[in-house]
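Appendix B, example 12.
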Amino acid sequence: MGSNGANLIAYAALTALLMLVAGGSQAAPMECHFDSRAQCGFEGRNYTMGETWMDNACMQCTCLHPMGVGCCETVHRPVDFPAGCEVRVEAVTCKVSLVQAADPRLPCIPGENHLLDPSHGALKLGE
């Protein structure tokens, strides 16, 4: 197969990956990245065209050999939360939690004393 055929296959695979991750959800857009110089390997294992793996940053990667590697976020992060809170993602489990910025050991629980600040953490599309 010529380079045009390989380019077409890689483009189709990346498009399918992006559509799968986007999934039409109403959450914040998840980011995808493509690296044309990346090798299809992670933690000592090599992957072939179309195989996927999860990296340590909760990114699902797909081998698009010989074109590179495409990776997309797998975690939906909240975008509207109290100003004194922040989002934490556990590297191994990819579990998302909302914690207090002043003391990340404590969960952030919105309630009577936690008014939402509409500008904090809000997703601002089209600005």
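Helices lie at 3-22. The chain has one helix and eight strands.
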